[in-house]
């Protein structure tokens, strides 16, 4: 993809070096070194060393690391080896100021946790990486994170499944400001990543609204719930005030398609001395890409097989108007048309195809789908007293997606040539609406940190199929059909307590809490033409069980429903709900300044699936200044989602 500077695909030079702390001279682990305006770069290893390949030329190298001021340097990269060392000074967002996911001890920094945690400052990455979607940015900077765009996979074309540590997409818990995020309404049912599972649509959160992202790369069911088996991703929203930031980014693929553009704007207002409200708006467009080859099969020839290959006679059912019988003249006309395609030579077909734009015009489109995305995010805090505050944040997202299926050819029974004489490429239009709001009060009561909150989220998915038809309805069939969709809603109420006891051992941190979650899943039927088969069904003679061929054309049997995505029928409709209750305890024992053990347990009960208890133990021993040993073990159990329990559909081939 082209964004700003162009980095050629040929890589004939090596760039390497070391990134160190300016004070101690020690190597920094996980610092990012990239070429400005590109995705070319690398991260430092345990010794602070980095290495990557690039094309020779003059560039600007950008070095970034959480808790340190970014460094930039103009360099000339020559063929062969190039060495550039960097020294970084502390500044920006200090690690000790970050309250990380994975521990409820507010005194513990990210460098002192017992489990692996990545903290990603998103602003610097957005400015230098040629990506516009959150999942693709995380692909670029977080090795444990994986998200791939899907193609020809119905709704999954427009929701990129995301996973941690190679586990399922429904084994990742996503939090916004530490509060549980709802999942998508879509079940990934095609042969895609996460088939049969339900993930969280992370691309509903505009990147311009994010201050940082915390990724817990360890099982955390005992701390956060049964769906945190692979880990937790916590998205922390911006709090900045009195500063407007805006950006415009555009680009496209080298092949000339896949145009992308994004417009971001963020501004914050002060509320009193300690309060604020921060607002982010984003518009994003991603064009389609096509990496399919040319179709090489037959487009028009039937070779004696295929649609209407047999001879029609007066009294047969009409292939064009359900419920009507054809006349002798109509049968003669159909047979004459069939004779043309049945006897067409390969050379004649090639000439006909070339006159209509070539074989490329009859090929499917394999690649990224088209997506248009608009989002709004609000994050706020209002002080109530010196020790208490009210907070609220919410997201609103509207997305329109466009993807296609497989080409329907004129010589197939699923194509009505009276509507599409040369066949057609059906298209899936996804209408996705996503909204959430969280509000709560937190503060200190008698030495305890208390947080009471409620979070509501909803996601809806509607399928509108265009450039299609219901072949069984014949020529009167509409070419745009509403195939129905899904809705998912989730409401979560949390009450959390935590306190640090510094007079016991070397300090003990105790956290307790409870969660009540209510969920509902709804499947909505489409319009009648999207699912019904209007065809003339072959009938059996009840006397001798033979086909009544006098009024039934044996071949005739066009598929019903909208081509590419048959709609959901009233028989598929449902509305199901459930409740889940969870309680947890998390105790961190600091035996010495250099050694602590964390023990956690969580009990959950689901009204539709029973209960489970999960436990976890983790420890960290700082052997010396630059060496620490940590270990963790946990159990996990995940109850199936409402979508997985109740999703159903009927397809007609």
Structure description:
This protein is mainly beta and 653 residues long. Among the domains are: 1-92, Carboxypeptidase-like, regulatory domain (Immunoglobulin-like, Sandwich); 293-357, no CATH class. It is built from 7 helices and 28 strands. The strands form 5 sheets. The chain has a 13-stranded antiparallel sheet with strand order 16-17-18-19-20-21-22-23-24-25-26-27-28. The chain has a 5-stranded mixed sheet with strand order 9-14-15-12-13. Strands 1, 4, 7 and 8 form a 4-stranded mixed sheet that branches.
List keywords for this structure.
about 650 residues; about 40% strand; 7 helices; Immunoglobulin-like; mainly beta; 5-stranded mixed beta sheet; about 10% helix; disordered N terminus
CATH superfamily of the domain at 1-92: Carboxypeptidase-like, regulatory domain
* Major β-sheet strand ordering: 16-17-18-19-20-21-22-23-24-25-26-27-28
Overall geometry: globular
CATH architecture of the domain at 1-92: Sandwich
Q: What distance lies between the first and last C-alpha atoms, to the nearest angstrom? A: 38 Å
Q: Helix/strand/pairing class, anyone? A: mainly beta
> Low-confidence runs (pLDDT<50, min 5 residues)?
1-11, 93-97, 304-309, 537-556
Could you tell me the CATH topology label of the domain at 1-92: Immunoglobulin-like
Number of strands: 28
């Amino acid at each position: 993809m082209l964004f700003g500077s162009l980095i050629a695909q040929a890589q004939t030079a090596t760039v390497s070096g070391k990134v160190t702390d300016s004070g101690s001279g020690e190597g920094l682990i996980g610092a990012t070194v990239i070429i400005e305006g590109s995705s070319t770069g690398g991260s430092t290893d345990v010794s602070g060393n980095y290495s990557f390949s690039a094309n020779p030329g003059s560039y600007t190298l950008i070095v970034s690391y959480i808790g340190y001021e970014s460094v930039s340097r103009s360099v000339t990269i020559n063929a062969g080896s190039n060495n550039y060392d960097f020294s970084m000074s502390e500044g920006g967002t200090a690690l000790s100021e970050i309250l990380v996911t994975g521990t409820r001890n507010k005194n513990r920094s990210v460098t002192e946790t017992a489990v692996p945690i990545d903290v990603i400052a998103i602003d610097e990455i957005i400015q230098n990486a040629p990506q516009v979607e959150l999942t693709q940015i995380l692909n670029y900077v977080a090795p444990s994170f994986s998200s791939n765009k899907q193609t020809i996979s119905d709704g999954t074309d427009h929701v990129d499944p995301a996973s941690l540590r190679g586990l399922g997409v429904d084994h990742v818990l996503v939090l916004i400001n530490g509060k549980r995020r709802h999942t998508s309404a879509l079940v990934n049912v095609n042969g895609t990543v996460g088939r049969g599972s339900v993930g969280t649509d992370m691309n509903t959160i505009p990147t311009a609204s994010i201050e940082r992202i915390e990724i817990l790369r360890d099982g955390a069911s005992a701390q956060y719930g049964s769906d945190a088996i692979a880990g937790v991703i916590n998205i922390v929203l911006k709090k900045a005030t009195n500063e407007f930031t805006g950006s415009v980014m555009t680009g496209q693929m080298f092949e000339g398609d896949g145009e992308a553009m994004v417009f971001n704007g963020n501004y914050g207002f002060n509320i009193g001395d300690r309060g604020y409200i921060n607002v982010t708006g984003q518009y994003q467009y991603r064009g389609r890409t096509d990496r399919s080859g040319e179709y090489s099969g037959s487009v028009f020839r039937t070779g004696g097989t295929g649609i209407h290959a047999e001879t029609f006679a007066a009294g047969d059912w009409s292939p064009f108007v359900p419920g009507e019988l054809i006349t002798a003249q109509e049968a003669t006309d159909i047979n004459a048309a069939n004779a043309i395609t049945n006897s067409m030579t390969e050379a004649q077909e090639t000439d006909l195809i070339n006159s209509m734009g070539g074989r490329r015009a009859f090929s499917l489109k394999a690649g990224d789908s088209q997506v248009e995305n608009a989002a709004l995010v609000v994050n706020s805090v209002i002080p109530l007293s010196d020790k208490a505050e009210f907070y609220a944040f919410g997201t609103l997202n509207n997305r329109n997606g466009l993807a296609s299926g497989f080409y329907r050819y004129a010589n197939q029974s699923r194509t009505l040539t009276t509507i599409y004489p040369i066949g057609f490429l059906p298209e899936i239009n996804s209408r996705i609406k996503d909204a959430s709001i969280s509000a709560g009060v937190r503060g200190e009561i008698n030495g305890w940190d208390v947080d009471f909150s409620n979070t509501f989220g909803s996601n809806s998915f509607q399928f509108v199929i265009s450039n299609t038809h219901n072949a069984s309805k014949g020529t009167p069939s509409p070419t745009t059909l509403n195939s129905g969709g899904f809705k998912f809603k989730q409401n979560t109420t949390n009450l959390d307590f935590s306190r640090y006891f510094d007079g016991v051992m070397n300090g003990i941190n105790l956290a307790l809490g409870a969660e009540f979650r209510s969920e509902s899943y709804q499947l909505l039927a489409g319009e009648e033409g999207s699912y019904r088969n209007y065809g003339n069904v072959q009938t059996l003679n009840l006397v001798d069980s033979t086909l009544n061929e006098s009024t039934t054309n044996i071949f005739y049997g066009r598929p019903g429903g909208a081509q590419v995505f048959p709609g959901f029928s009233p028989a598929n409709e449902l509305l199901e709900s459930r409740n889940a209750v969870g309680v947890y305890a998390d105790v961190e024992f600091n035996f010495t300044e250099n050694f602590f053990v964390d023990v956690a347990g969580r009990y959950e009960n689901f009204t539709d699936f029973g209960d489970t208890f999960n436990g976890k133990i983790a420890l960290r021993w700082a052997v010396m200044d630059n060496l620490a040993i940590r270990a963790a073990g946990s159990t996990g159990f995940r109850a199936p989602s409402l979508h997985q329990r109740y999703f159903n559909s009927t397809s007609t081939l």
